[in-house]
Design a protein that fits this description.
4 strands, about 45% helix, 2 domains, 5 helices, alpha+beta
Length: about 140
């Protein structure tokens, strides 16, 4: 096998969607700016195999975002939200928490995210997506006041 660093295609892409099929497994659709699409990609046949390396880029700065960084941010976000009195009240009024305490907000949050510990957010992408969605719902409710 040749050295990947020497023989590779490089381009920027955005995740468009991801689905699971029985035949192919996970199918990742990427959007590539036509100016960034390597010509070799057009010439390769369908079913061509590739070694793929993905690096997250910050939207405005193009800085690399470490893979686990988003997990650490999610753990931190969960802790900060549960300490927030408005979030505690939101969890009580709309999400079934028994009272407006940090502990109850954390317990209810873990139940909603289907996790045993907020530290699981480091590696659990589905729980992170639910957390970010819940945060967005909470922020929209606060703005609507």
């Amino acid at each position: 096998m040749t050295n990947v660093r020497d023989d590779h295609l490089q381009f920027e892409a955005k995740k468009i969607s991801m689905v699971h099929t029985r035949r192919d497994g996970h199918v990742l659709r990427l959007g590539i700016n036509p100016a960034d699409t390597p010509e070799e990609l057009f010439r390769d046949p369908v079913d061509q195999r590739y070694m793929v390396v993905l690096v997250r880029l910050a939207e405005e700065t193009d800085d690399i975002i470490p893979v686990n960084d988003i997990g650490k941010k999610a753990v931190s976000l969960a802790a900060v939200l549960c300490k927030n009195w408005d979030f505690q009240k939101y969890m009580f009024l709309y999400k079934g928490a028994n009272n407006t305490s940090e502990e109850e907000a954390a317990m209810t949050l873990k139940a909603i995210l289907q996790i045993n510990s907020r530290s699981e957010l480091k590696d659990n992408e589905l729980a992170r997506e639910k957390l970010f969605s819940l945060r967005d719902e909470f922020e929209a409710a606060v703005k609507a006041k």
